[in-house]
Structure to design on (186 residues):
């Protein structure tokens, strides 16, 4: 019996070899990250003699804002304010009401800062085409935006006293939620 005669597309073998190499590299990286295997020293940084995987082995997680100190906290808060005031407020938040509270000084509420920072980190990951698929934005809305905003704007949420003026008089409901991206033109 003779071997079947198959036509193999040009470049298929090179593609398979590339895939094998990528799988081997990812397997080694996964082993190194989960078990402290070869390629990482006890401190978690890549070996100095392996320059190609140096960037891949040094995975840096985004900082949780409440764990930062100045000036890192100030820089992260400034970036968060730009996102909240430039994207979230004008695109998602309707006018505040007794059932849907919002404080224009939200950045003075640590609970709001923590929740909005987590929401922003998820937004960065789930709306970036390099890190998400087609369902990323939907996942962000369902799993992150909806629960976060529901908690923040709840009648017992961190802005409860700001709308009613009972607890934080300096945070009383403004006429319009300000935005860092809008400029008043006389």
């Amino acid at each position: 019996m003779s071997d079947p005669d198959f036509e193999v597309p040009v470049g298929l073998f090179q593609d398979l070899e590339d895939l094998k190499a990528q799988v081997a590299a990812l397997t080694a990286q996964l082993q190194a990250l989960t078990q402290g295997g070869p390629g990482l020293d006890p401190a978690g940084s890549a070996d100095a003699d392996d320059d190609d995987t140096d960037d891949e082995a040094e995975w840096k997680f985004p900082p949780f804002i409440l764990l930062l100190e100045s000036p890192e906290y100030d820089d992260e808060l400034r970036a968060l304010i730009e996102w909240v005031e430039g994207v979230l407020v004008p695109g998602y938040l309707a006018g505040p009401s007794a059932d849907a509270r919002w404080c224009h000084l939200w950045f003075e509420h640590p609970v709001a800062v923590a929740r909005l920072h987590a929401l922003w980190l998820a937004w960065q990951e789930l709306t970036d085409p390099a890190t998400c698929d087609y369902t990323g934005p939907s996942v962000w809305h369902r799993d992150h935006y909806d629960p976060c905003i529901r908690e923040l704007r709840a009648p017992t949420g961190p802005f409860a006293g700001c709308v009613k003026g009972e607890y934080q008089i300096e945070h009383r409901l403004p006429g319009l939620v300000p935005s860092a991206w809008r400029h008043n033109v006389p």
User: Anything to note?
Assistant: DSSP finds six helices and no strands in the chain. Helices lie at 12-35, 54-57, 72-92, 110-126, 136-152, 160-164. The CA atoms of residues 17 and 23 lie 10 Å apart.
